[in-house]
Description:
This protein has 2 domains: about 5-230, Alpha-Beta Complex (Spore Coat Polysaccharide Biosynthesis Protein SpsA, Chain A); about 235-305. It is about 50% helix and about 15% strand. The chain contains 10 helices and 7 strands. The chain is an alpha/beta fold.
Amino acid sequence: MEYSKDLSIVISLFNEEESLPELIRWIEQVMNREGYKYEIIMVDDGSRDGSWDLIKGMSAANPAIRGISFRRNYGKSAALFHGFKAAEGRVVVTMDADLQDSPEEIPEMYRMIIEDGYDIVSGWKKQRFDNKLTKNLPSKLYNWTARKITGIKLHDMNCGLKAYRNEVVKHIEVYGEMHRYIPYLAKNAGFEKITEKPVQHQKRKYGKSKFGLERFVNGFLDLISLWFLSTFGKKPMHFFGFTGILMFLTGGIMAIWIIAEKLIQQGNGMAFRPVTEQPLFYLALLAVVLGFQLFLAGFICEMISRNSQDRNHYNIREEI
């Protein structure tokens, strides 16, 4: 496929008026030095400062700069989705607008995509300048968990500086807060050539971070949701049905055991405890009811999945 540009640089931003001029000058310097045909797509995620006015002014001065402005703050995933949709470059690079990502890393990441054949090159902020207690330690725990669940060996899944083959961003849908897991979304779509590159981490120069500790909790919950959907989304009966049958059989065996034990004791003239006075019997009945409901839920989800409109939507590599 022929591309009109070598690079598309997608920048999601929210209230970054102070850092934008310096960032754009830095990017332009690198692009001109390397001789790339490029575009800069800045997605203003509902900023309340003068960010959008700056973007319009810079776009008038440099036609390579494109802008998208949201009426309100929708989140980074929505911004990247629209940036990916607009990207025309052979390689698409994402980076943050806070000057913590260095444009000097882009040429080598571009080379790794074009020459080494990777689908995704993720930045790895090996040496960080964030607060160790509030950022570094939670980040290490978060990334360790992400590696175990996704099977992707990246040290910094959440790094905003990444390079993608254009085909990758056109075949994935970034929604909710799933921008953290674009490599996992890409892997599930069949793009498995994923690597990382140590990158320079800059100290924040202006303003303050838009993310707090809650992003790690939310990120973990999003990861569990994504894992569940990717594992059981097409075959919900494999989860709900198996769990339901297991609970139904466990509860049924327990109930039968309790009733049989009472009948044997009663038949032999031994002292026995009425079935209805045993808490275990009610737990057994609860397990039977829940097991049946889970099985029924799996059956309904399976019918919905099989009748969904996108059931025949597959990622085709090539046709001859």
